[in-house]
Amino acid sequence: MLSKEKKVPYLLLTPGPLSTSDTVRSAMWYDSCTWDQDYKSMVTSIRNKLLQVAGCDAATYTTVLMQGSGTFGVESVLGSSIDRKKHQVLILQNGVYGKRMGEMAKILELPHLTYEVAEDKSYDVDALEALLKQHPSITHIAMVHCETTTGLLNDLEPVAKLAKNCNKYFIVDAMSSFGGIPIDMAALNIDFLVSSANKCIQGVPGFSFIICKKDVLQKLCKDNAKSLSLDLYDQWHEMEANAGKWRYTSPTHAVLAFHQALLELDAEGGVAARTKRYHQNQALLAEGMKALQFESYVSKALQSPIITTYLEPATIPGTDKDFKFADFYQHLKARGFVIYPGKVTNRNSFRIGTIGHLFPEDIKRFLQQVESFVRA
Ligand SMILES: *Cc1c(COP(=O)(O)O)cnc(C)c1O
């Protein structure tokens, strides 16, 4: 057993679960009752606070918390907001998470089209516009903000503009960016934004959340779910009617941790301060890895501050010794840092996250350990 006084065995340089603060983990020390007033008030305050983080007003927008990881939240939005008889969704893809939405659409039998570009490119807005013209049947556009597969940041603005001009519903998987990168929901006219507890808000895994336009939720999602447990409208209705009550068992400990994580986001100075820290982390990482001759996969212009993909070199830089990811991983883990295997198709790669309770000093210490591996 790890006592609270002991240091954590390693930091997670991963995109979620990620390293959390001692105080976020400590917030889970007691058991709460899901229908008790104190707990429900905490749920309500979380819902309101998320609207503030998103910069949207409570008259137009609302928040729904959903059990399960981020994928459950995305599936609940697609399954609840798309009517098989009336709608068709265009899914933009340049990585695993965009493709995952395509898999959902298939399984849920939603009318859909996909628009795919290479994993190191972002969307071509002219091609998108042409697609929309060619297929007037499209009613929804769904895209990923930060494609965590690679760390590539897709610009929301041009797609948001298209969606608005062409009168399409706009769904954004902002899983690994919300809270860590400013997103102006109202200006971008986003209808549904999905994120989860264990990413940039720096809570622990257990639930996702959906920020959405109230009128769109009511218009599209009522009596339209393809799954009982992922019924977005019913979940919202219960949270509203019963002031903070979830349908079915809620992840109580994760909720306590999330509440604390939101307080700490405020204490840090909000999204503006957090994005600054993540950028500092990533800039230090990029500089240090480059000096050690590791090659990043995403171009600087498209690189997010969230996670960075590096190509596996054939040999340890500066030597003729074979580079083995497993050895690299173990070397770093034994010295207090866990990194992430890659997910890019057809290229061996690994990823290093710069989000969570991680600071420039941690990145500097991490780089010293990368260097000790290279020099060993
Ligand atoms: C983490 C993540 C998800 C959800 O993944 P889960 O493993 O279900 O939490 C979805 N989209 C993106 C972009 C992500 O980074």
Please describe what this structure looks like.
The protein is of the alpha/beta class and 376 residues long. It has 2 domains: 11-16 and 270-375, Aspartate Aminotransferase, domain 1, CATH 3.90.1150.10; 23-266, Aspartate Aminotransferase, domain 2. Helices cover 40% and strands 16% of the residues. It is built from 12 helices and 14 strands. The chain has a 7-stranded mixed β-sheet, with helices on both faces. Strands 11-14-13 form a 3-stranded antiparallel β-sheet, with no helix packed on it. Strand 13 and strand 14 form a beta hairpin. The chain is globular. The two termini are 33 Å apart. The model has no long low-confidence stretch (mean pLDDT 96). Pyridoxal-5'-phosphate is lined by residues 15-16, 69-71, 97, 144, 148, 173, 175-176, 196.
Helical fraction equals 25-40%
Mean pLDDT, to the nearest integer, reads: 96
Low-confidence stretches: none
Number of domains: 2
Global outline? globular
CATH-level-4 superfamily name of the largest domain: Type I PLP-dependent aspartate aminotransferase-like (Major domain)
Quick rundown:
Helix content is 40%, strand content 16%. The chain is an alpha/beta fold.
Question: Top keywords for this entry?
Answer:
binds pyridoxal-5'-phosphate, alpha/beta, 2 domains, 376 residues, seven-stranded mixed beta sheet, three-stranded antiparallel beta sheet, Aspartate Aminotransferase, domain 1, Aspartate Aminotransferase, domain 2, globular
